[in-house]
Amino acid sequence: MALIECRGLTRTYRKGSAEITPLEALDLDVEAGDFLALMGPSGSGKTTLLNLIAGIDRPSHGSLHVDGEDLAAMSRRQLAEWRSRSVGYIFQLYNLVPVLTAYENIELPLLIHPLARRARHQRVSLAMELVGIADRHDHYPRQLSGGQEQRVAIARAIVTDPRIIVADEPTGDLDGRSARSIMELLGRLNAELGKTIVMVTHDTGCADHAKRSLHLEKGRLVDVPVPEGSAA
After folding, report:
1. How do residues 93-148 score in pLDDT, each as one tens digit?
2. Helix residue spans in 97-213 (DSSP H)
3. CA-CA to 12 of 20 to 30 Å: which in 27, 84, 176, 229?
4. Cα separations (Å) of 85 from 9, 110, 113, 114?
5. What does residue 84 show for φ and ψ, rounded to 5 degrees?
């Protein structure tokens, strides 16, 4: 079984009297160690799919198994516990707590785990070193550049040592140089630490860092023809 296995995955919402279906009858396999970029126009279902894989949202129909677990069958409490140990989420706008230091922001996901203070310190220090911000230990978000803030967010996502990292437009708020640096970091996490990464992006340059790319249109995966003369 693939690490992530979606079969007939559908998500619908009610908006007034209308029914919205951002994701419809989607089949998808993501193997352990993959680095997948999800592309497509706004409203195509990319973030909906990401949130389902991360256990933040629930499917309306179909099945979703992640790391052998049936997410659709879990209670909200079970889903929250599974998410805390299995998935790290990287947001476009960082979602850092402004009154906490970089260290404290990264430590947050560990506070719900039964770890001693020394063990938490070791994990946070290692995560900060891995993403290259060990010297920003006591800095607050307002004292950091956008690229540094995103590195704090990445460290927070990996500090629990999850098998899966999901990233929603992780470079969308960054300049070109910072974006390349962040994508290189994600590539290292995939290649050197074996993290499975599922990333939403509009940027083809960012998608080039992934092992493969898939395109969504109106909630469905579509085949995008390769331009004539391009390498297969």
Report:
1. 889 999 999 999 999 999 998 899 999 999 999 999 999 999 999 999 999 999 99
2. 102-107, 117-131, 146-158, 176-193, 204-207
3. 84
4. 23, 10, 9, 12
5. -65, -25
